[in-house]
Amino acid sequence: MAKYVCQPCGYVYDPAVGDPDSGIAPGTAFEDLPADWTCPICGVGKDMFEPEEA
Question: Global pTM?
């Protein structure tokens, strides 16, 4: 599963880790995150994330 990078702050969402502080279990693909999920660092929405360049 691809990692996604928050463009404003650089936070990397790693599906292997999830976002436990927000109740997102490890193994949750970025596409499967709730529509109202926001960056845990700066609070922007999913639309501000881009796939990480390999």
Answer: 0.93
